[in-house]
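Q: Joint fold for the lines below.
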Amino acid sequence: MKLSNWIARDGAERPLIWPCVTLLLLCGLNLWVNPHFLSLRMLDGHLFGAPIDVLNRAAPLVLVATGMTLVIATRGIDISVGAVVAIAGAAAATILATQPVASAGLIAQALLAALITGLLSGMWNGLLVSFVGMQPIIATLILMVAGRGVAQLLTAGQIIPIGAPGYLFVGGGYWLGVPCSVWIAAVAVLATAALVEGTALGLFIRAIGVNPVATRLVGLRSKALVFAVYGFSGLTAAMAGILISSNVRSADGNNAGLLLELDAILAVTLGGTSLLGGRFSLVGTVLGALIIQTLTYTTYSIGVPPEATLVVKAAVVLAVSLIQSPAARSLAMSFGMSVRRSLVKQHGAAR
Amino acid sequence: MRRILEAWAHIVDPRTLPIAVTILLFCALFGFGSVMYTGFFSWQVLLDLLVDNAFLLIVAIGMTFVIVSGGIDLSVGSVVALTTIVEAVLSEHMHWPVWAILPIVLLMGTVFGAVQGALIHFFRLQAFIVTLAGMFFARGLCFLITTQSITITDPTFQKISAFRLDIGVGSVTANVLIAFVTLLAAIYVAHFTRFGRNVYAIGGNARSALLMGLPVARTRVGVYALSGFCSALGGAVFTFYVLSGYGLQGQGMELDAIAATVIGGTLLTGGVGYVIGSLFGVGILGTIQTLITFDGTLSSWWTRIVIGALLCAFCLLQRLIERHAKSVGRPGGTGAVVTAGRERGHADGSAPPDTHVIGRAPEQA
Amino acid sequence: MQPGGAASALEPVLATAGVSKTFPGVKALQRVDFRLFPGEIHTLMGQNGAGKSTLINVLTGVVAPEAGTIRLGGEVVAFASPQEAEAAGIRTLYQEVNLCSNLSVAENIFAGRQPKRFGAIDWNDIKWRAQAALARLDVTLDVTRSLDAYPIAVQQMVAIARALSVDARVLILDEPTSSLDDSEVAQLFKILRHLKQSGIAILFVTHFIEQTYAISDRITVMRNGEREGEYLARDLPADQLVSRMVGHERMSARLREAAQASHDGHGGPQGAQAGQPFMALRGVGRRGSMQPIDLDVQPGQILGLAGLLGSGRTETARLLFGADRADSGTMLVEGRPVRLRSPRDAVRHGIGYCAEDRKKEGIVAELSIRENILLALQARRGWWRKISRQRARELADLWIERLGIKASDAEQPIGLLSGGNQQKALLARWLATDPRLLILDEPTRGIDIAAKFDIMDRLLALCASGLSILFISSEISEVLRVSHRVAVLRDRRKIAEVSGQASNEDNIYRLIAGSGE
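A: Joint structure:
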């Protein structure tokens, strides 16, 4: 009885428990299959190992999911991030392609262009949601549908290869032994956390997510804040776009960032943030992104065919949602109690 | 401009205005094409819209019901792909006849949808998340079965695929007939059965529907089961269309279905929408595709941009109408209660917090 | 048909015996006996938390009691769901109109049981049946229009028509009059009396004492989860009713006086002072909302806004707060003209606003009490200058103590507090910004009597330190009790301002009716 009470209450009060447990279970599974899973070695001044791989691949997802967390906290959603990744990558590649040898200035321009397109895309979404008042899912659906078309337009339907070493360093290089992408993601998350908790922004975002009407009547400029949050989401998507295009050394309007928005939403949900808005957790999101990446890694390492990744992802999503759902928990508890009661009866009858 | 809108809104109920615009737009697009390109203005071109998009129409019909009920179904594209793969495998590898295969896949789709609906209702999970998981699951199943494309060589399949009925002005395929029958059945269900009316009620206000004693659980599970059925039927029709099974099919089809539904006048908040609207929504999507093909100079990704722009325009229109209705205040009723100068009380029109479509715009206080 | 008094000769149509229900931490019902007879209107009264809602939920199958029996028509019943209760003939109407506003009136009346012909829904049949159902209530309207085209009062009548469209034995109305104005209440009561005659038993739950006496045959008083007593309405005077609801020990002479005063309709603090108003409206209006209005709010005084529902009270409040933008006129704060384009501007000028709908426009349910209290203050400071954790704790504790908010912990979500405590927390939110003008729209709605007087006492005390208050309430007696001056509104216009001798209920009603002095 006590254990079930704790489960029922604790899940609600300390939601970070569940992602931690899941991640630990996954790591445990990996260790069981491959005892060297957690081992790291230094080679040419770079750290290598499975954890580094996971962190490296998870970096773009962490970036996108960070922006997504804030959007979801305001009771919104942004399903256009995948398209924005493609657009940003295409913008950078287009600029880099204007000169055969890329100077530092050109690389800076490319990076800037990518970030600006991301910001503009986010602001477009913010405009539709905040000032026109459209529902977020439909507002961002528009960019999701049209965005890939725009990316294709920029790349003229081709896959543009990227060779500038400076640009490639961003996604593929190392600094102090750790991949750059991991640094970038870490800094981004820490900066966001500092911004959100060190100022009143966190409180405002949560208030807007729970009750947007009351928030306006308290004198908050909710529209401006929501607009900014979507802009931020576009920005983080652009950063992810830079990382991805740098990593695969090309800009592909069709496939870059495909299904990334779904993974991002998954990461946020796994991390305990509710899709209904309000309380959010950046740590939870990072954990969620790591879970998804570890999951992909796990299915590969335990020999499950890569095609099965999707099925496993689906099962994990469902399982975590069920655990987080109070309705499911209470159903499970009442089921457990009725089983207990019948056992007690049997026991009593036997005596 | 404002006064024209006002007068127009008085004549046309805000609920039917979007679909009126849809129909007008469809005619306008088709007219535009006829003027611009020779050979466009023909019955066959019109019928070919249906021939090429019959599967999308069927899927959009299922999606319309789900969206009217206040939910959303992201798994439809994947179920279509799964259906094609299952049909191909059953036909090519196990040599089952068409008439045995079809009931199996339809049942599979229905059960798939029903399970999603049960998870959404009984565990109060978000429709977005559950159908997202469903999408992954179905797609994953496809790849687990096979990653290759399987061509269907069964003669019955090929006969059905090649079947054309001459209806005087042109010819249609079996797919079109199936889609047409589905459309008629859907209209009947939506307007003449209790289930259909319950769907509208739940979409309008799920909490009220529950308190009114309506069978919310049955209806919700049923609506997702219906969507699963339509996805499977759409998949079957798609199989007749392409005569192959392939797991990568139908990616993005859910977005097309949603776009067709929204352009067809259905509100994403639920409770408002007409099945026939989705017919015109699909028609518009198909016309755009045809226009671009006829033009020949535009690359195909322009389709994506145009559809996005259309979607934007329609949502803006819906939003404009919403705002206008709110500011003017709906006219009061006649009869026993005098309403001149009274406060407009609205029953809580916005969906309750347990609604299944996520993401709401920050409300204007 | 015999009046309720003689109904004791009959058997009760619905009765409970020894019903108990406990929720975690709360004994909601304790051994409650209750009787409802056919052909009577029986009112259930009690403070918030007395158990009225739980009793209703037990009677309608929403929750099952842990002990005791329920008898319907003399036979023991146990409802597993609201549908079962409904099928047995018990119909319930709630304060919120629980219909689907996107459907037509006719559809709402017959949702779930639409008549069919040859397997398909017969729309013509529905239409004329719906018209017949409404005609029984003496209401005529276009049943094919969607429900949200009609105001709430009409929607409620549609809800009643639905409830009665299939044979009902018991009609339960849970606070149906909160959103109705007096003429609509009168119409509702006419319908109820009409229904009573046909033998239906009606259970009525309300806060309004005047309405209770206007309509009831019998009254059951609940207190602390127990049935305090069952009385004939004509045998129970108002002050005794209040004392039984509140508990005799807590009833001070002051409260009793005030309760009697509310029943007779007398005034409150007198006196109007001249001098520069803190805030003045000159011809301020908004198309579709409010006709141009002149208003002065003096510092240190309470200005009341009295008027029927729909007269424009909330609209005026929202204009004052910048929640709605004015189309015409000038607003002056301390003699200087200002433009209030949003609540943000108003807050900067030292104005605060407690909205009418606490749940939708006031509390941010999942945030903690502390965060709710600080919200307005933090909003004014801006996003960059965050109030430190320690200071936040201090502030919250200060206000919790000052206003007597009953909460075990300032970190718990505000949604868990009772209505009265939530209202106090909202008050704290605005008081923490040290406002010059506080606009209170229905601050005592849904709050039990003891908390009501408590809040009003504190408001009067605050005025002594220079705070101005704009007080809005649909209970005119309450407005009179608290305000120094009262502005009377009708049909979106201010028609008069009264103070001193002229401030009594009769006069105000006369003014509203159009024949006052």
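Q: Anything notable?
A: The interface with chain C takes residues 198-201, 203-204, 206-207, 210-211, 213-221, 225, 278-279 of chain A (CB under 8 Å). Chain A has 15 helices and six strands.
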